[in-house]
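RETRY 2/3 - previous attempt timed out on the joint model. Re-submitting the same 413-residue input unchanged.
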Amino acid sequence: MITQAPRGTADWYGESMAKREKIEEICKTIAATYNIKQIMTPVFEHTVLFQRGVGETTDVVQKEMYTFEDKGGRSITLKPEGTAGAVRAYLEHSMYAESGLTKLFYVTPAFRYEKPQSGRLRQHHQFGVEYIGSESPLVEVELISLVSQLVKSFGLNDIEVHINSIGCPKCRAEYNKALLAYLNEHKDKLCKTCLERMEKNPLRVIDCKEEGCKEVVANAPRTIDYLCDECKNHFEELQALLTELGINFKIDTGIVRGLDYYTKTVFEFVNKDGFTLCGGGRYDNLVHEIDGKQDIPAAGFGMGLERVLYFLELENVDLGGVKAPNLYLGFMGSVKAKAYKLVDQLRKEGLSVETDYLDKSVKAQMKYANKINAPYVVIVGEDEFANGEVKVKNMADGTETVVSIENIASVIK
RNA sequence: GUGGGUGUGGCGCAGUUGGCUAGCGCGCUAGAUUGUGGCUCUAGAGGCCGUGGGUUCGAGUCCCAUCUCCCACCCCA
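RETRY 2/3 succeeded.
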């Protein structure tokens, strides 16, 4: 089975690769309009970074990480998400010293040991953005606005913005008390895992899908009713800013997110079926969690490239496929060397040129040129090199133009 | 991790109650046009029927195991 990729992994090539390139191009172009700079961090990090950053109680850390010991005895983990690594790099290189707010984006693979499904892999890829250094709700608003822009640029329509606030440690303590009290009253109806969650992180009970738990949760206290003044104002300002920008959103008290580092704002971009394109939020405690010293507020999101592809397919959006070369230059007879030198010359002049490597007949070469959507074709033989002129064929309408060999590139351009 | 489906040439599929050399469409290669594509016609190449066991005179068809992909749950991007 050496010709089979490991479970939950996928190869990118042909159409899918062309689409992915287009998606990344759109992401980068839009990120540039927000003056966000790219960062690349290692594919693996010390395991503790994720244990501390993502949170010990999360499913991601508890059962989904690709962790191994390297030959030096270090515990290493393939990154299960992008934020922790970016924040680690931010701290390691003291980026806080450069400016008040650091804006970073990345495109990265992420690894989680899960049971695969379509749009859900063991190695997936994320476009992510992190804004580190500001507690203003303007940050989340900008992130949401950025994703809205992306969604629009992809040509997607059926995507909703869902937001919620899960408060800060201060108000969450209040909330947890109320929630725990409530859950204790209904303990008999909760599932086993939820009883465990009550101990470690009661908030996680909120998104349990077990029937009994759902019933209990329906009337449970909501985070947004327990926000402290600061968090409440933050959430209200956020909503006002979104409204001002004309961004439609829904408050969804069900989103609490599966990663422990979130505080205050959490948001998701989802379709009608509740499938998530992108998830993110504010994480004011993550920097302190990793660095142990500084308190630097931050927010960010991750968007799955495979999910983008999945949504594009769902909504039947065509981002365009494999690019065609500018020219197919074929040849026949005993002019291979001269013809290939001409191909080489045209490429040096900046043209994308395809040619024949299989000694095919002229007819077969034409078929191939047609197949790869070459807009122009030139076939050279003894005659062409003898009189220095070639016929440039326009494949769309079949017309031919006589051009001197030296002028091929300029004519096609 | 739990439950349920699936797997036949590159792609999409058909294979009747287990029975002759496993078919079809698309694609691919070549020819019809000794130097010119898209249409048409003709011919050809390409498959240990996911893998490993088992039942049987005989297995693509039945049984077991295993892997993959898919669907729901869990979780998330």
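The radius of gyration of chain A is 28 Å. Closing ticket.
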